[in-house]
Amino acid sequence: MNPQEIISKHKPTQDNLLNILHDLQNNNPENYITTDAMDLVARYLNMTKSSVYGVVDYYSMLSLKPRGRYIIRICVSPVCHIKKAGGIISHLENTLGIKTSETTPDKLFTLEVAECLGQCQEAPSMMINEKVYNNLTEARIEGIIAQHK
Ligand code: FES
């Protein structure tokens, strides 16, 4: 389905902006929203291009640049921080060979940091796409990453 077809599935009201943007991103194999797609959304919803761009830029769940097939979001909020999420991030960076906000050369993984994932009782936590992983340890990280290769 091309971007125009995706956009046309939604009613042309500005209330649908976020739904449309998520739909576009979820249907892009590179997990981001292209400039052309944002232009189409602006025209469809009778908004300025800059206001659509501003929304995409504001929401951390939306991306303006190509990302990997799997988006890893590691929580850096206080409870996870206290429970050594920093060490988990370093381990992920070493395992994947990238820093946060980067994508592996094979375009399989993008590593991002996130605010509280609502899993504090089982911190440290991360998400890979829509799935949550809790009680992370370096050993668990190895297994989880291996499952996605
Ligand atoms: S602080 Fe990490 S899940 Fe809440």
Description:
There is one protein chain. This protein has about 150 residues and is of the alpha+beta class. It folds into two domains: about 55 residues; about 80 residues, 3-Layer(aba) Sandwich (Glutaredoxin). The chain is about 45% helix and about 10% strand. It has seven helices and four strands; from the N terminus they run ααααβααβββα. The chain has a four-stranded mixed sheet, with helices on one face. Helix 2 runs antiparallel to helix 3 and helix 6 packs across helix 7. Bound molecules: FE2/S2 (inorganic) cluster.
Lay out the secondary structure.
Elements: H1 3-8, H2 17-26, H3 35-45, H4 49-58, E1 70-75, H5 78-82, H6 85-96, E2 109-114, E3 126-128, E4 131-133, H7 138-147
Helix pairs in contact: 2-3, 3-4, 6-7
The protein binds FE2/S2 (inorganic) cluster.
What brief labels describe this structure?
7 helices, four-stranded mixed β-sheet, 149 residues, Glutaredoxin, binds FE2/S2 (inorganic) cluster, elongated, alpha+beta
**Total number of domains:** 2
- Gyration radius (Cα, Å) is 17 Å
Any idea what the CATH architecture of the largest domain is?
Answer: 3-Layer(aba) Sandwich
Q: Could you tell me the strand content as a percent range?
A: 5-15%
What's the count of strands? 4
The SS-based structural class is alpha+beta
Number of helices: 7
Name of the top-level CATH class of the largest domain: Alpha Beta
Largest sheet: 4 strands, mixed
**How far do the termini sit from each other?**
27 Å
CATH topology of the largest domain: Glutaredoxin
Bound molecules: FE2/S2 (inorganic) cluster
